[in-house]
């Protein structure tokens, strides 16, 4: 399946469509395997999506939540991706605590926390070392510099091909991030992108040829479905790109 691109006229329409896709994927994963594994993105765009999911009546005990990236701060820090998702969604529903799998940020060394989380993922998915598990859904955003998760332009994490989790680098600040091969092993990847400031990077990412080191979102070519959901201000020049 090639990438599916949809440009939605409003922010509300973008969130509604993302919700519809997430729900459909959750339902099909649960009916196929009895559970759904979903990795969340951070930043500002997905917050209304999480608030909308919190209003649904879902079989929460069958849903396992991960994060595609995390800022290296405690969960109660305003920048924490975990903290945002908990406040918007997870604290409002009856999901078992054991189904929430945040990236740890308390070792004092991001590389140690990256290894710890990698071991946790391998154990959860029962994948031997060197193999990449297939999450059912990975939600991604994209920054105006073309980064996704915490895969920032011209950083070491972009070249990591033998790990599930890498240490990202945002202007010298460490982050934890899913690696490109882990994201690319997913059954379904959904980018949710809004805002006119994303337009120049999107044009580079959708161009037939381009540089993945400068526009890291180009690295995302999953084995499963790839959806790009854009609001009108981000996607107006890409409406006819498939
Ligand atoms: O730093 C981050 O930014 C991206 C994009 O965020 P947005 O606010 O422009 O939607 C996000 O996907 C990533 O998870 C986050 O850590």
From TrEMBL:
It is an enzyme of class 3 (hydrolase). One of its GO terms (molecular function) is 6-phosphogluconolactonase activity. Its EC number is 3.1.1.31. CDD domains: 6PGL. Residues 12-228 form the Glucosamine/galactosamine-6-phosphate isomerase domain. InterPro entries: 6-phosphogluconolactonase_DevB, 6PGL, Glc/Gal-6P_isomerase, NagB/RpiA_transferase-like. One of its GO terms (biological process) is carbohydrate metabolic process. Keywords: Hydrolase. It catalyses: 6-phospho-D-glucono-1,5-lactone + H2O = 6-phospho-D-gluconate + H(+). Pathway: Carbohydrate degradation; pentose phosphate pathway; D-ribulose 5-phosphate from D-glucose 6-phosphate (oxidative stage): step 2/3. The keyword Lipid metabolism does not apply. The keyword Hydrolase applies. Belongs to the glucosamine/galactosamine-6-phosphate isomerase family. 6-phosphogluconolactonase subfamily. Hydrolysis of 6-phosphogluconolactone to 6-phosphogluconate. This is 6-phosphogluconolactonase. The gene is pgl.
């Amino acid at each position: 399946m090639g990438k599916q691109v949809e440009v939605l006229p409003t922010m509300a329409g973008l969130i509604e469509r993302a919700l519809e896709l997430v729900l459909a994927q959750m339902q099909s994963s649960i009916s196929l395997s009895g559970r759904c594994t979903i990795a969340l993105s951070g930043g500002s765009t997905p917050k209304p999506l999480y608030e909308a999911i919190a209003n649904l009546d879902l079989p929460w005990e069958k849903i396992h939540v991960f994060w595609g990236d995390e800022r290296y701060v405690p969960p109660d820090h305003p920048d924490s991706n975990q903290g945002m998702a908990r406040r918007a969604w997870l604290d409002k529903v009856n999901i078992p605590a054991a189904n929430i799998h945040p990236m740890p940020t308390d070792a004092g060394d991001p590389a140690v926390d990256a290894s710890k989380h990698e071991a946790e993922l391998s154990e959860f998915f029962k994948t031997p070392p060197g193999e990449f598990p297939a999450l059912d859904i990975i939600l991604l955003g994209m920054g105006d510099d073309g980064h996704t998760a915490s895969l920032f332009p011209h950083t070491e994490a972009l070249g990591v091909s033998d790990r599930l989790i890498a240490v990202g680098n945002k202007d010298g600040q460490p982050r934890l991030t899913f690696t490109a091969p882990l994201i690319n092993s997913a059954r379904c990847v959904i980018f949710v992108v809004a805002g006119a400031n994303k337009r120049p990077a999107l044009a580079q990412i959708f161009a037939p040829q381009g540089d993945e080191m400068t526009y890291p979102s180009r690295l995302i070519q999953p084995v499963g479905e790839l959806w790009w959901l854009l609001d009108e201000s981000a996607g107006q020049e890409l409406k006819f790109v498939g």
